[in-house]
Amino acid sequence: MSTTTDTTSEKVDDSNFVNGHGETIDDEQDEVEESSVSEEDEQDSAEGEEEEEEQDGTEDGEDEDEEPALKYERIGGELPALLKKDSASALTISAKFMVLGTHAGIVHLLDLSGNRIKSYKSHQASIVDICVDETSDFIATASIDGQVIIISLSSRESYAFDLRRPLRTVALEPSFAQRSSRAFVFGGLAGTLTLREKRGFFGVGHTETLLHSSEGSIWQVRWSPSGPLIAWANDLGVKVYDTATKSIIAYIDRPQDAPRPDLFPVNLNWQDEQTLLIAWADFIKVARVRTRETGFMLEVIKVFQLDSMIAGIMPHPMPIAVGSAPVSRPQSIVSTTSSSHSHLVNAIAKPNPTPTMNPPPLTSFLLLTFSPPQTSLLDLDALLTSDTDRTKQAKAPSERPELRIISRGGEELAADALSVSGYQSWGCGDYRLAGPISTDAELARTLASPSANSPANGTTISTKSNKWYVVLSPRDLILVRPRDELDHVSWLVERERYEEALEALEVIEHSLSGTNDHDGNTKNLGFGDKKVAGVNLTSADVGQKLVETLVSEGSFPKAAQFLPKVCGRDPKRWEDWIFVFAEKRHLQSIIPVVPTQHPRLNRVVYEMIMAYFLTHDATMVLRTIREWPHDIYDVGAVIIAVKDQLDKAAVANDPAAKATTVVLMECLAELYTSNRQPGKALPYFLRLRRPNVFELIEENNLYTDVKEMVLTLIEFESELDEGDTGRKEDEPSRAIALLVDNVHSIPINKVVSQLAPRPKYLFLYLDALNARDPNLLAGSGFSDLQNLQVYIGLHSAMSFTSTRITQVQLYAEYARPRLIDFLRSSTDYDLEKAYQVCQERDLIPEMVFLLGRMGDNKKALGLIIERLGDVERAIDFAKDQADDELWEDLLKYAETRPAFIRGLLENVGSEINPIRLIRRIKNGLEIPGLKGALIKILQDFHLQISLLEGCQTILNGDSSELSKRVQSNQTSGFFLTGKSRCHICSQPLKESPQHLVLLFLCRHTVHARCALPTGDGIQLPELPDPALRGVKLGGLGGRGLSGRIAFEAMVRARIGRGCPVCHKRSEGTS
């Protein structure tokens, strides 16, 4: 016995709603709550109104070059064999598999590759609806044989119900496997919607609840994902039932003039807990669940009308930009042509707003649409025509179904016609749209070959959506997926938009790890073997096509910019393109991107570029030489070419040629330096006035190369000094120091001969040499430098004449204060010529010195007295010469000059007796300061006498002390034994009693033989035998004291030089 729930509801149109208590909500209440409408609803309505205005102003035709948003793949595997003798009638998707029902009543469990997981026959007629629970364990099927069968894949639990009337739909409650009630709802041609669930604690048997009846057949029922709401469609419209309150909360009318649901089925889809999508014939209605204090209510927030019938509807993520979605569809599945209809979408109703729950994210609608044949079955009158007309209608071929994406604002974003097998024979009710399939689901991983576009390394190419769908036809299952970035590349390549395709490929390759090999070329990512319009989908091949296109269009600079991406590290490609640009006379466009390291090209390529620059832009030659490695081209060949251009530029006189000459010299300097020929680069660095010349010379030891360009080097430094305001005047010259420090490599004669035309530089050099070592100029080759013929002008007023120059002249001209020092320190000059030089310049002190050195002291003294009037200098001169006659002359000069007399009196010393000077003073001669001078003389002499007396006293005391010390040392004894050694031969002194040993007062003891002068043949007498001395037979040594004195005198006479040890010390030989 079944329990029937009384279900009475009030029928309202789309603008009115029914709450959970069946009370009609009047317009006044709607107006009060109008301010509570959600922002999303206002946005949706505003978009609809804007779309209506925009559609009026737009053309019916769409741009044929618009990129599709989806791609399609016919599912193969075992599926074609399964449908060879059977046809598909129902399809649903779970997280683990697809469930396919056929007209033969067989259920097939398949993966996305078409492989059969399981099959079983559950019905005797066509299966029209399938439902799978969230765990993919329970499968419910409904068939026109009147049965509902529910089976478990993991257990033996199953249910079968025979309603004895054809069924159209079935739905399991949310969390069916976890609930003990095992509730499900079903309906069919009997016109009743029934809810069945287990009863009692032990779940024995099922209770039956009649939810609705008496309004025609139940065509589809859908349970909200996890809520208490059940939506179903019958002949009159759509109703929504709340299982919590056990009441119908809303009723939505069937669209006016809608065709029969058995020909054009209604589709219900819960987008989420709050949104119900209704597709009925050519209408789409979007209903939103609202929550009020009295319970749930439903309102229609959007209504669209299409130009074709809807076979399936799914929510679809809103595309970011359909035009930028990736590439083309397989032509065997999707037609490249779209419907010629206008795709106009009309907003029909906008109900009063009400408070909402949290709105879901914005989505678009994915629609499977069907356009009836020209002999349309939409007209109800046509359905009542004769059998003959129906036969004609049945024979009218159908058009291909379309998959469309419609925005919430009513804008058609994409439309693709599907080429399904035998589509001419199928009607709208033969198609189904199932899904979505999450790419993270187990089912998605069963796709054997995800795509020809998928990378080989297993990484994922990003798409705009992670939802897949499946389209069912009686003979086909078509997998629908969002297009990825590589599809976008293929689409661009097909339309010869190679630049955009290359950019997209680079993004893909950058997102995938390990896409570049060691040569810098793009690896085959697994899809590189796929060709689109004859082009492999790799950066190199797409870029090659792009460059070819740009070159053919004459866009050479732009084409060159892509060559690094196209050629990578392939030298052959680089060389081919470089020669192509050269043939087209656009070599300058490719030069900036030519590689020099990775890869390194043939030398001919680089030398060709150098030759081009030499003839067109010398500045670029210099830049290239500095930037390019020098081992990639023949430096010697480039040097020859640059020299040739330099010679040509030197002939021309225009300013441009002069500028080119400077650049070419810089090129040669750089080339010689890089070619390890710094000596050849040095002249160019000097001509270019490079400040690093000295570092170049020192680092590369180029002193022998400098010897031929001494003057240029010094002039170069002089120019640098003029620009250096911070340099001190007395700071030594770096060039002169370099020449002086390296006279072994830079001969003095070479330097002097080159500096002769520039006396100042010559002076600086010779002066530095003299300061370093005066002996450097002491040789016969440099004496007086008389053999050097030069052209100089020692005075600015003089003209340049041929003359001979000496160091005296140089000092006189450029270092006047130091001339006297040079004259005193050097002897390698001609005194007469030196005097002549000084006389020409009236250099009195130097003339006095030279006259003194020449011996003409009187004349020198006369110059001091007459020209200088310097008493002290005259006295010093007389002292230096130590000539009494000169003093006499000085005294004669002083007799008539009181100032000189006083000066002599004040400064005269021991060289002249003051009385001699005083006696020469004439009576009556007035001498200012005479008294003071005389007092000074007396004081000086008194001081001198005092000093002499003091010194004498000290000398006497020291002499007495030393005399006493000597006497004490000579008269005192000292210790001596037989083992004492000779101070000369170091042998023992007492060798035998007869050997004579000499003892000196200086306390040195030596053998007599050692004290004799060598080579004179002198023999000393021997000592008498001690035994004979007692009988007076010992000779001279035995006659007492007088005999000993005589013997000592004889020995002293033969030695002759005293102590030999002290003698050697005095001579410095010991």
Q: Which tags fit this structure?
A:
1070 residues; five-stranded mixed beta sheet; five-stranded antiparallel beta sheet; 36 helices; 37% helix
Describe the structure.
The protein has 1070 residues and is an alpha+beta fold. The chain is built from 36 helices and 36 strands. It is 37% helix and 19% strand. The strands form 10 sheets. A 5-stranded mixed beta sheet has the order 1-14-13-12-11, with no helix packed on it. Strands 23-25-26-27-24 form a 5-stranded antiparallel beta sheet, with no helix packed on it. It has a 4-stranded antiparallel beta sheet with strand order 2-30-29-28, with no helix packed on it. Helix 20 (734-741) packs across helix 22.
Quick structural summary:
This protein is of the alpha+beta class and 1070 residues long. Residues 25-67 have a biased composition (Acidic residues).
**In percent terms, what proportion of residues is strand?**
15-25%
The whole-angstrom Rg is 64 Å
- Terminal residue distance: 151 Å
Work out the helicity level: 25-40%
Function: Required for vacuolar assembly and vacuolar traffic.
Biased composition (Acidic residues): 25-67
CHCR repeats: 736-903
Domain RING-type: 982-1062
Question: Layout of helices and strands, plus pairs?
Answer:
Layout: E1 3-4, H1 27-32, H2 39-57, E2 70-74, H3 79-82, E3 88-93, E4 98-102, E5 106-110, E6 116-121, E7 127-132, E8 138-143, E9 147-152, E10 158-162, E11 167-172, E12 184-188, E13 193-198, E14 206-212, E15 220-223, E16 229-233, E17 237-242, E18 247-253, E19 267-270, E20 275-280, E21 283-292, E22 295-305, E23 309-317, E24 334-335, E25 363-370, H4 380-383, H5 387-395, E26 402-406, E27 412-418, E28 432-438, E29 467-473, E30 476-482, H6 485-494, H7 498-511, E31 531-532, E32 535-536, H8 539-553, H9 556-567, H10 571-583, H11 587-590, H12 603-616, H13 618-627, H14 635-651, H15 655-674, H16 678-687, H17 693-700, H18 703-706, H19 710-723, H20 734-741, H21 748-755, H22 759-772, E33 789-792, E34 801-804, H23 807-814, H24 819-825, H25 831-840, H26 844-854, H27 857-868, H28 871-881, H29 884-895, H30 898-907, H31 914-919, H32 930-971, E35 997-999, E36 1005-1007, H33 1008-1011, H34 1026-1029, H35 1040-1055, H36 1060-1067
Parallel strand pairs: 1-14
Antiparallel strand pairs: 2-30, 3-4, 4-5, 5-6, 7-8, 8-9, 9-10, 11-12, 12-13, 13-14, 15-16, 16-17, 17-18, 19-20, 20-21, 21-22, 23-25, 24-27, 25-26, 26-27, 28-29, 29-30, 31-32, 33-34, 35-36
Helix pairs in contact: 6-7, 7-8, 8-9, 9-10, 12-13, 12-14, 13-15, 14-15, 15-16, 16-17, 19-20, 20-22, 22-23, 24-26, 25-26, 26-27, 27-28, 27-29, 28-29, 29-30, 30-32
